[in-house]
Every structure is written in C-alpha cells, then in structure tokens.
Amino acid sequence: MTDLPPPRNPGSYSIAVVCLGNICRSPMAHVVLSAAIADAGLDDRVEVVSAGTGDWHVGGPMDRRAAAVLTSHGYDATRHRAQQFQPSWHDEHDLVLAMDAQNHADLRELATDLAGTEERLRLFRDFDPLADDGDRDVPDPYYGGDEGFDHVMSIVRRTSDALVDRLARVVN
After folding, report:
1. What is the 3-state secondary structure (H, E, C) of 105-142?
2. Of 3, 24, 25, 79, which is the active-site residue?
3. Domains by residue range for the chain, with CATH
4. Is 24 a catalytic residue?
5. pTM score, two decimals?
6. Confidence at 115, pLDDT banded by 50, 70, 90
C-alpha cells in the first residue's frame, strides 16, 4: 500500500483531487472525501479541494448525474463550482490526486519542480484497496449512462475511507 507524503505543515494536510473538467469524478471525490474526513473528526486539520486540468467548465456546477448520485447517497452536491488546476497548487497541497493516468501526465507537465512534485502527485486509486496495477484509473462516466456514475461512486467511497484511515495517522 502507498504511504501518504508527509504534511508540509505539521498538524494540517491539504489534498487536491483532479480530473479533466472538474464536473464528474473530482467533485464526487471532493464531496465524499470531505464528508469522510468530517466524520472522522479530522476536518479541522485536513482540507480538500478539486479542480480540472481543462478550463471548459470553470464556474459551473457539477454534472447533474454526478450531483444526483451524490444526493441519493446523502451528500450535498450544491456547493461545487468547477475550477482549473493551477501549477502553483503543486507547492500548496500536500497531496495531488489525479483521477486517471492522462490527468496524472498532464499534472506532471504543469509541475515547475518535478523533483519536489513526484512524491506528492499520485493517482486517486493508488489508495483503493481493490485496485491492482493494471486498473488504477477512475473511469470517466461523462459519455455513458447513470451506471457509470454509480460505479465511480463505489470507487470514490471505498478509496476515501482508505485515505481517511491513513490521514488519521499522518495528522494526529
């Protein structure tokens, strides 16, 4: 299992979750991970943000299907507004989680200091207890049906739970 990089500032931790447009996968992960962090009593020490590598949806809400899945599971999907990942975020966050290999590659290209970024840039599913080496991408449900969003929700929930377990050891 992958260890979390150490916090830049003891007692606090900052995570950025990144997909392509910041309307499906990363906002779902942002909402679910934030709720899991709050449930664990870590929300005073751990912050989560989400963004996209592209700028097409900046300022807009998440995809209605992503919001519907979150709402059906009891999460609040109303506050999200899409934003674009900025290169400076590599230096501002303890952990940057890409939702798939292409986003990971795009984020590496945005790094101004790759040596300082390598440890902190990971795939979201690096922390998924059911992922294997050949299956590290969170699939993009945008062009599919509702079942794709349900599948992403399953991945996001179990991975968020696994991340929170590790975060508790890092920030306590």
Report:
1. HHHHHHCCCHHHHCCCEEEHHHHCCCCCCCCCCCCCCC
2. 25
3. 13-171 (3.40.50.2300)
4. no
5. 0.95
6. low
